[in-house]
Specification:
It is a single chain. The protein is an alpha/beta fold. The chain folds into two domains: about 180 residues, ATPase, nucleotide binding domain (Nucleotidyltransferase, domain 5), CATH 3.30.420.40; about 190 residues, Nucleotidyltransferase, domain 5 (2-Layer Sandwich). The chain is about 35% helix and about 20% strand. Strands 1, 2, 3, 4, 5, 6 and 12 form a seven-stranded mixed sheet that branches. Helix 10 links the parallel strand 10 and strand 11. Helix 2 packs parallel to helix 3 and helix 6 packs antiparallel against helix 9. The model has no long low-confidence stretch (mean pLDDT about 95).
Length: about 375
């Protein structure tokens, strides 16, 4: 079956589209990417998304128009990636504008803005969307969802294997080995904390919006990270919550950046970016260290995906902090880093059509197997 996957993450930099063909066993499919396309959001749209996700109040008319604009841009990306509408189904995540992590006392919540029926009619194709609400209704976090498909797409090796996504938020997938005592273990996953969210916001502030990210980590590499501050940040309660664990720009966004800048005091822009980048690597390293201390799980390799793989300073810091773990770009196993998440939602959409439910207990914490997404036909 041919499926088109559309994804825009918490970085809100644009839409990634992937046309993929699936064959065989849904749990261990043969898959082939037929085409990819990336569309960068216009500045005005990205600015509006970021402001609304940071708490800007807009009236219902502007909310509706934003939903229409995002839907139209997804339709554009879909047509560019699959101009002949060869996909039997289109899986579209929509744009996250709000995420509330579930706690013992409070239900989780997550808003992805998209007009699914409008997209289906614009494309004249079946659309699967709204992937997170059923999970949240089942007392899950609704995130992260990509780990639910990682084992099927990437597979197991002769040891514990990790996949790290460095988008706006960093999240980890931990895949059990194919043989040995742990072969009957379950795949687990969680959100680690900020990856690019704080870094990108800091770059925009420092450059007065002339730049959106630290290209190759070149600015951070010129600075000196404040290690004592990072060690204090790593003690924050969120980073010691047991999985399932989820977060978003609501927690690690503009206000959080201002708080951390105040703690850092009067330092150079290079030192600020160096500290924030080192912080991201240190969060991941601490999670892996806790994984070993609490579960006796030690990774033999960590595959890295997402926009953060292009930050050379961040990748160097990861290798330094996660000493002893073989770290490499997920591209090396034939899965394009930039399109991993779009591929994941294409997979969930394929599974929806097949009626394949997923047990998310060890990833999102939901208490029942779920058929992810909502189907709408043109």
């Amino acid at each position: 079956m041919r499926v088109l996957g559309l994804m825009s993450g918490t970085s809100a930099d644009g839409i990634d589209a992937v046309l993929v063909e699936f064959k065989g066993n849904p749990s261990k499919p043969n898959w082939k990417i037929l085409n990819t396309y990336s569309f960068e959001y216009p500045y005005s749209i990205r600015e509006k998304i970021l402001k609304v996700s940071q708490g800007l109040k807009i009236d219902s008319k502007n909310w509706m128009e934003l939903a229409e604009e995002i839907t139209e841009l997804n339709a554009f990306a879909a047509n560019a990636c699959d101009p002949y509408s060869s996909a039997e189904v289109v899986g579209c995540h929509g744009q996250t504008l709000f995420h509330r992590s579930a706690t013992n006392s409070e239900r989780g919540g997550s808003i992805q803005i998209l007009l699914g029926p409008l997209l289906a009619n614009m494309l004249n194709q079946t659309v699967i969307y709204d992937f997170r609400s059923k999970d949240i209704a089942s007392r899950g976090h609704g995130a992260p969802l990509v780990p639910l498909v990682d084992e099927s797409l990437v597979g197991r090796v002769y040891g514990w294997r990790g996949i790290l996504n460095l988008g706006g938020i960093a999240n980890l997938t931990i895949i059990p080995p194919k043989t040995g005592f742990d072969k009957n273990s379950q795949c687990i996953g969680w959100d680690c904390g900020p990856a690019n969210s704080l870094i990108d916001l800091a770059v925009e502030e420092c450059s007065k919006s002339e730049s959106k990210f630290d290209d190759n980590g070149s600015l951070a590499s010129l600075g000196k990270p404040k290690l004592n501050i990072i060690q204090n940040w790593l003690k924050e309660p969120f980073f010691h919550q047991e999985p399932p664990r989820s977060t978003g720009r609501e927690q690690f966004g503009f206000q959080d950046l201002q708080k951390r800048k105040k703690e850092l005091g009067n330092i150079s822009n290079q030192d600020l970016l160096s500290t924030l980048t080192k912080f991201t690597a240190s969060i991941v390293a601490q999670d892996l260290d806790n994984l070993f201390k609490k579960r006796k799980i030690s990774l033999i390799e960590l595959l890295v995906a997402g926009g953060g793989v292009n930050n050379l300073f961040l990748m160097r810091q990861l290798k330094k902090e996660c000493f002893g773990v073989h770290i490499r770009n997920i591209n090396e196993i034939g899965l394009p880093s930039q399109f991993r998440e779009a591929l994941a939602f294409a997979t969930l959409s394929w599974w929806h059509v097949l009626g394949k439910k997923v047990d998310p207990k060890f990833v999102t914490g939901a208490d029942q197997s779920i058929l992810y997404g909502v189907r709408v036909d043109p």
